[in-house]
Design brief:
- By secondary structure, the chain is of the alpha/beta class.
- The protein has two domains: 184 residues, Vaccinia Virus protein VP39 (Rossmann fold), CATH 3.40.50.150; 73 residues, rRNA adenine dimethylase, C-terminal domain (Helicase, Ruva Protein, domain 3, Orthogonal Bundle), CATH 1.10.8.
- Helices cover 37% and strands 18% of the residues.
- It has a seven-stranded mixed β-sheet, with helices on both faces.
- Helix 4 links the parallel strand 5 and strand 6.
- The longest helix is centred in the C-terminal third of the chain and has 12 residues.
- It is elongated.
Length: 268
């Protein structure tokens, strides 16, 4: 029974952002890139088991929140140490023994899921919209480089791998997808005041095509400072003449430290 028949037999109608891989060759290629052999794997949105049935792992947690799909998973021919978990990944406490996270992510949840993975710092191999993968790996000065790209380069070493054509899915999406590999990378920077730093960067990226000196003043409400104070110090900040979307994590952090450690702020 193929995926279309499985879903039809359950009366399950995929949402607009749910697209199930139905091509076994594409599935096996994805898993070969994930390199799961000998690992403990967590699959997000295991669905009908189209990926997990071909998974080679010592142990696997198959996370799926839909009860109809959980029923299919439990009836599938899975590994002996594969555990089906009926839960929303966003609410799941990820087991400590997980080595790698994989998943064909629902389009509308991909950003939130990656946000959670950034805090977990687990190696992840995901299928996302190709446009999202392009933004995840975009470098400074690339037209695609935005705050999402910046966060990806801070939390991970992101790598875009193979493209999976839309024809490999049911239902067929309007866009192609790509394999996005995320290698934990936050420890490279050792940044204190991380929440304040990322908020500072987020504020500046709302004016990403402006020079830092101008974006700083224009983003004052998000930064939480007054216009006059920012005008006084903006030219003294490192990289003040560079456009925001030209700044990598190191440069942004240098600008942040210049802002945070200015004399009048240090006295507060």
């Amino acid at each position: 029974m193929d995926i279309r028949q499985e879903l039809s037999s359950l009366g399950f109608n995929p949402s607009e952002s749910q697209h199930f891989l139905r091509n076994e060759i594409a599935v096996r290629k994805f898993l070969s890139e994930a390199e799961t052999s000998g690992k403990t794997v967590l699959e997000i949105g295991a669905g009908t088991g189209s990926i997990s049935r071909h998974l080679d792992a010592d142990k696997a947690y198959l996370v799926e929140k839909d009860p109809s799909l959980v029923q299919i998973l439990k009836q599938s021919d899975l590994g002996t140490d594969y555990r089906v978990i009926r839960e929303d990944f966003m609410e799941l406490e990820v087991p400590d023994d997980v080595d790698i996270v994989i998943g064909n992510l629902p389009f509308h949840l991909a950003s939130d899921i990656i946000e959670k993975l950034s805090t977990l710092q687990l190696r992840s191999v995901l299928i996302v919209q190709e446009e999202m993968a392009d933004k995840a790996v975009a470098a400074p000065e690339d037209p695609n480089y935005n705050f999402f790209s910046f966060k990806m380069s801070y939390y991970f070493v992101p790598v875009k791998s193979s493209v999976i054509s839309s024809e490999n899915y049911y239902p067929e999406p309007e866009v192609d997808t790509a394999v996005l590999k995320l290698y934990p990378g936050r420890e490279r920077y050792n940044i204190d005041h991380e929440e304040e730093f990322t908020q500072f960067a987020k504020a500046l990226f709302t004016h990403r095509r402006k020079k830092l000196r101008n974006a700083l003043v224009d983003a004052r409400n998000m930064i939480g400072d007054d216009k006059d104070s920012l005008k006084q110090i903006r030219d003294s900040l490192p990289h003040s003449e560079e456009k925001v979307f030209h700044l990598d994590v190191k440069k942004m952090h240098e600008a942040f430290l210049g802002y945070k450690e200015r004399p009048e702020r240090a006295q507060d």
